[in-house]
Amino acid sequence: MKKLFFILAVLLFANSASAQWFFNNERIANLENFDKKRLSWGYFLGFNNYDFKFDYKDDLGKNTDIQVDRSSGFNVGLVGDVRINEYLNLRLEPGLYFMQRNLIFPGFEEKKDFLREVKSTYVHVPLLLKVSTKRLNNIKPFIVGGLSTSLNLSSNEKNPEDNEQGRFRMTKNTNYYELGFGIDFYLYYFKFTPSIRGIFALNNELVPDDDPNSPYTGNIEKMSSRGIFVNFTFQ
Prior knowledge:
InterPro entries: Beta-barrel_OMP_2. The protein has three helices and ten strands; from the N terminus they run H-H-E-E-E-E-E-H-E-E-E-E-E.
């Protein structure tokens, strides 16, 4: 996850030379009055990459740690934006997030025992504060941060079966904090915004097995999601 943040930051920095051409040369301004509206709406499409962070009750060595095999997922949602002033906006971005994480538990020989596929569909609702620079021709960089909550439609929280029957259970509701950055591009007909955001769960998402000595969940103190969103917003 840190590597992905670093790569994207480098790519944005690498584009600074071309950005200077925009910043230092006067151009025809697109959508001149767009940011003067009190309310604006849009939608986003994007990708996500989720991970789990585990805290253990006892340190039994790296060879006993649970491994997480991540894959990229898909995001889609709506954007509601409230202008506070020239530099501050309050944003609500409800969306659907689809992803899968595979957990590999050490100490088992058969795949049906050591592998748990964690497929999740989140209804994710963040409330974000967007802090922008002054508009530079048709570009406006910004940083964004805030709090969010999600409903996991695939949590298995109330399922009476646990890992003994091959069911990995998570809590249905999770709260997070989020931090990110992006750039608004003012095009002829609409505003296009690529952005990247990191998301970090605040609460424990694990529903432990019924057996307190379970080889799957017995040594887990806390399990929390963390991830990266790359979204493309159209307003």
